[in-house]
Design goal:
Number of domains: 1
Structural class: alpha/beta
Helix content: 40-55%
Amino acid sequence: MNRRTSALDRFRPGQRRAPRHLLALDLETTGLDPERAEILAIGTVPVVDGAVRIGAATSTLVRPGLRSAVEGIVAHHLLPSDVLSAPAPADVLPALLDAVTDAEALLVHHAALDVRVLERACAATGLRWPSPRVVDTIELIGRVRRRQRATGSGRRLPRDLAGARQAVGLPPHQAHDAAADAIATAELYLALRAQLGG
């Protein structure tokens, strides 16, 4: 199996039961190339029994390597000094991996980027990526779009997080903030799951 697609394949269409405990995760990174981007921030929020546990949301900045572009930092409204004083990946990843392992599935918007960046970060710090079941809202959007095409109903659902949220009636959120994006992903997941009938 191709390593780049293996994380996406972990959401098995044959499994009809939605996971009861997901960990929604968002990364802010130095770029969009999953083979080069480094983590600037990690945000998570649990989704348990169909409820987003906002009170349990976490967020941390992460110090990237020296090769990271300053533009990537500025794009996320961060100052270089913000991330230079942040903990290194090796200091934050163990707790994240524990949370990932405790959940039934990892929930992300665009697994091809976030999961791959996490796999690389784990490899670079000598940690084992647990290869969790991954639920990608991009994949769920694809399912809704296929249903829309088949039935000729509704406006085509956008793939981007903000556009998809707006299309399903969710309010705007604070983009480029890891915790806010994790919560936004969790809310979008619940809306898409409802459209797909659970």
